[in-house]
Amino acid sequence: MTGTAPAAGKAGTGEAPAAFLEVRDLKIHFPTDDGLVKSVDGLSFELERGRTLGIVGESGSGKSVTSLGVLGLHNKRNANVSGEIWLNGKELVGASQTEVRRLRGREMAMIFQDPLSSMHPFYTVGHQIIEAYRVHNDVSKQVARKHAIDMLGKVGIPKPDKRVDDYPHQFSGGMRQRAMIAMALSCDPELLIADEPTTALDVTVQAQILDLIRDLQQEFNSAVIMITHDLGVVAELADDILVMYAGRCVEYASVDNAFHQPLHPYTWGLLGSMPRLDRERSERLLPIVGSPPSLINVPSGCAFHPRCPYADLNDGKSTTERPELIELEPGHKAACHLPLDKRREIWTDEIRPKL
Amino acid sequence: MFAYIIRRLIGAVVMLLLVSLVTFGIFFWLPKLAGQTTDQIAAGFVGKAPTPEAIQDTKERLGLDDPVLVQYGDYLKGIVAGRDYKAGPTTDKCPAPCFGYSFRSSQPVRETLVDRAPATASLALGAAIIWLAGGITIGVISALRRGSLWDRAAMFIALSGVSLPIYFTGLVSLALFSYSLEIFPGGGSYKDFTDDPVRWFQSLVLPWVTLAFLYAAMYARLTRAGMLETMNEDYIRTARAKGLPEKTVVTKHALRASLTPIMTVFGLDLGLLLGGAVLTESTFGIPGLGRLAIDSIRSGDLPMVLGVTLITSISIVVINLIVDLLYAIVDPRVRLG
């Protein structure tokens, strides 16, 4: 089996799972003046150590909200979080703030999108790494400083013993992201969440950063969640892909399956929107028509139906009934009303030749 | 850094020259422009029913017949190097820094300033400590509990604090705590710290609190606004993601980043107050620079007014220089130079 499929069936049982990380029926809702924003609405997945899960989707599909939810970074006063998050046998949604805080940084860490705004401008890079290390490790400043220099060296920063005393604004964008990674990895977290770690970087640096994350993952054998809207990044790094739409998982598959025989029209759309260098330039990209749905008034039935070119093929079921996430092949799940054969036919005859 | 300080100091001196030139011009040049003769100007300095001899004497002593620029030059020279005043047969030696003599009391201006400055400094610094501690604490708590009852109550009180003038809150507090409850001594009871530390403290509690109330209100609102903005920054999220305790996140990461705008305002406020808190000193009868300024203006004691103005300018310039240097320490992105 290439991947671990989400286990929606076990949701709500409260039993500790065998997997390292298991998210069950996670719901993150924000009550606002305009209505209830359902940013994440019933998401389940599993992840083992040493494996990488890519979460892809458009802006506003709930990717980042999910990752912040796993780390327990939502303010309980303006977010309703329900469901279960099991990390290494511990349940996090019901755990106290202090318990989750102790795990943050030590067992689970996060790399953020924009390394300039994500580091405190008033403290040196070294100070921020030392701070992260010393919260969870009772060591002297000298020891922590040595560790910080080691980490900076490990992520490929030249002359780490000098750069450790620099401020974030004295680093280039790529160096800053490396420092951010050094900070996230300073306590050997077993779960690393990277939220669009390369979006703010130029392409040459992107590749270096992705290589770095892969190398470090192999070294530390950590589980990695890679959040991105860039399918290229996922293809490069992930073992499995979770495609999110309107706060729900619409397709879950191994990278191979997701790229070569995707079973959801939204995934087809994402693939069609991806520029490719190995094709004729004259052909236009095939963007998904329309825009992401409002998370306050999610479309009835299948949330994707207003933008789906095949929604009419289901006798109106798309507008009335929400498709469940069904395992169609081992390790490959999708939520769509189209008959499986029909989907395979559309993929092979219509979509694939155009990609 | 060093070059920066030198440049700023030169700038400060130029600025003080300008301030003194303008003030000097207002008092010694404008009357001439308005057509007053030097005799008339001198008569104003002598007092009631001036005799021709007294007027002549004053004119000579102050050099009122000289061109205004020469007079200004003499004044500056007096500050830097001291100055001799010819008064008939005798010569008064006025050592540097010489701000001249009071027209009214004939005392050297410098002595009076030195005499009055401790009261103003005690008032301003004591109040500053209270309003910084109080205002920032209230602002932080309000920001963290935005929309709560505490927040709304604190901001309402802060608004009233900003709107109520000191001669109202001051008089009310005097009436309540001094005349009715007799906890603190009333107005005009100020003694210097060196003479009577207990009395000094007792007499300053009400002025401190009253003055601090006014400013704390402003600082609470300022801190609250800054904190609300900072708490949404990405680096606060990072600090939380590292697993730092919330207390560290708030004080070390959020508050420090919110401090810079507060420092700017604080520099201006404290500098201005060190030149004399006119209303507070008048309300509580504290013999500080503010009272001195008012009294001197009322009695037309020009050298004294000039002296107080210069002291105020100097304190503003110096405090702001310190604030600018602190900026570079607080925010490493600020490059001095």
UniProtKB/TrEMBL annotation, chain A:
Membrane topology: Peripheral membrane protein
Origin species: Actinomadura soli
UniProt xrefs under Pfam families: ABC_tran, oligo_HPY
Predominant subcellular localization, coarse grouping: membrane
PROSITE patterns to which the protein is assigned, alphabetical: ABC_TRANSPORTER_1, ABC_TRANSPORTER_2
The ABC transporter domain, residue ranges: 23-271
Signal peptide: none
Organism ancestry: Bacteria, Bacillati, Actinomycetota, Actinomycetes, Streptosporangiales
Gene3D superfamilies named in the record: P-loop containing nucleotide triphosphate hydrolases
Protein name: ABC transporter ATP-binding protein
Keywords, ordered alphabetically: ATP-binding, Cell membrane, Membrane, Nucleotide-binding, Transport
From TrEMBL, chain B:
Gene Ontology annotations of biological process type: transmembrane transport
Signal peptide (UniProt feature, chain positions): none
ABC transmembrane type-1 domain span: 117-327
Protein name, per record: ABC transporter permease
Any single GO CC term annotated in Swiss-Prot or TrEMBL for this entry: plasma membrane
Transmembrane segments: 9-30, 123-144, 156-180, 200-222, 262-284, 304-330
Subcellular location, record wording: Cell membrane
Main localization, broad class: membrane
Entry's family note: Belongs to the binding-protein-dependent transport system permease family.
Origin organism lineage: Bacteria, Bacillati, Actinomycetota, Actinomycetes, Streptosporangiales
Keywords: Cell membrane, Membrane, Transmembrane, Transmembrane helix, Transport
Membrane topology (UniProt): Multi-pass membrane protein
Top-level taxonomic group: Bacteria
Alphabetical list of CDD domains matching this protein: TM_PBP2
